[in-house]
Structures are given as C-alpha cells and as structure tokens.
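Objective 1b: paired records.
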Amino acid sequence: ILDLSKIEAGKMPLHLEQVQLPEVIDELVQTVEPMVRARNLEFRTSVAPDLPVLDTDRTKLRQVLLNLVSNAIKFTHEGYVSLAVRHVGERVRMTVEDTGVGIRPEDLEAIFEDFRQVDQSHTREYGGTGLGLSITRKLLNLLGGSIAVESTYGSGTRFIIDLPCVAPRPKEGAAATTGAGNASSAGA
C-alpha cells in the first residue's frame, strides 16, 4: 500500500542504472524455483541473445516480473509458466504466460484496478490484497513501459510487457538517481 501511495503522489524515486536483463531473469528463476517445485510445475524461460543493456530501475523491473510470475504460479495448478524476453526495436518485450485458470473476458478490464481481485470462487481461495497488478502497471508506467493481457478462461493467461531500453528521465523536481550521478556527486 505504501508503494501505491508513493506512486500516486509522484514520490516514487527511480534509481536508474545499467541493467543486464539476463542477470535479472536468473535471479528471478532462483527466487521462484521453490514455488514452482512445490506446485509441480514447469518454468520455462526463453531469453533472446541480442538483448541490449537496459537503462532502467533494476529493483522496480524485478518487482514487476516477480509480481507477474508469482501470480502465474499461484493460479496454475498444472502445466507451465513461461517467461520469454526479446528485443523489439528500441524496446524489450517480456511475455509471462501460464496454463492456469485464466480470466473471464468480462473481468479483463478490471484486473489492473486498485484493490481489485477477480471475484471468482476459485480465485478467492488464493488470497492477496488485489494490488499486485495495479502496482505492476503503475511501476511499468513509471519506467515508460506498458502492459497488456490476453486470457482464455479455463486455460491460461498471457501478460505482455513492453519496456523502453532507456527509461524516461523524471520530470523536474521528481526524485531520481542514476548510477553515474551518484558516483560523480560524491566528491562535490
């Protein structure tokens, strides 16, 4: 809830740095591996070899991916969860896909709303605050990215993230730091 408040107030700082996406993916795989094993699922990754170094906020990007992959694992009883990453022009496209319960067409528009959980008897059992996807979308907006969702109720969901290779610089007065900026200001 604190993250949501900071984002909405325009006080969520960006810590821009050079990010090697394959490293972030490796960390993510290590983090979710116990959940994947516990649910007896397959976790597939496909990372294109031509990915550029991103200029973005590593922590926020990691949170976005962790939110999406964790949700996919939570709502998948059998089958797989996958994360595919590729370079598309000046952007990187990341796709999180699962063979889970899916989302009803009438619920797709509302899943990014604050405190919104799809009101289905089989999803209520999983708990949560209903903030994960809302925060995910807002973090992506902060990073200059976007998110879309496709789902077939009963057979899975696909989230598509498009993220610029270079995150937009914050507006005047907004909080942001860069790796280079921190180092150069230390001696000032």
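Objective 1b, second protein:
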Amino acid sequence: MNTLLPFQPDAMTPAQLAAVSYLARYSGHTHTLYSCQLRRWFAWCESNTLDPLVGIQRAHIELYIRHLGQAGLVASSVWT
C-alpha cells in the first residue's frame, strides 16, 4: 500500500523539488527505477559536498560512474 504524502515545496531543497517534479510524469517500475537512481546520485553528491544540480562538471560525472562500477554495477547498467 502506497501512502501519498502532502506536497510541501516550501520544505524542499531546489534539488528535491526538481526531482519530485521530474518524477511526477512517471509511474510504476519506471518511477521506482528513476527515483532510486536520483536518490543514489543525490547521496553521492552529498557525500562529496556537491550540489546535485549546480556546478556539476564532466569530471564529477566520470567519478560518479566509476563509483557505480566500484559498487558492483556492471557497465551495461551504468548509463553514460
């Protein structure tokens, strides 16, 4: 059973608001997959003191992809 929480944009960071807005168009497995991927990206950015939306450069993306590989994801599951 899924429980919908009230939408509270004032309590969200700009990155969270962008993620919620992006995910709103998806449902089912696609929503679940994209949500998981965004949470993983946000967590990696937080652990590296990065804003997930502002100031990201190609080097950050390359490091993130390397991180995913080291976490055990096979290359074909890491979208570049």
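The chain has one domain: 13-77. The chain has three helices and no strands.
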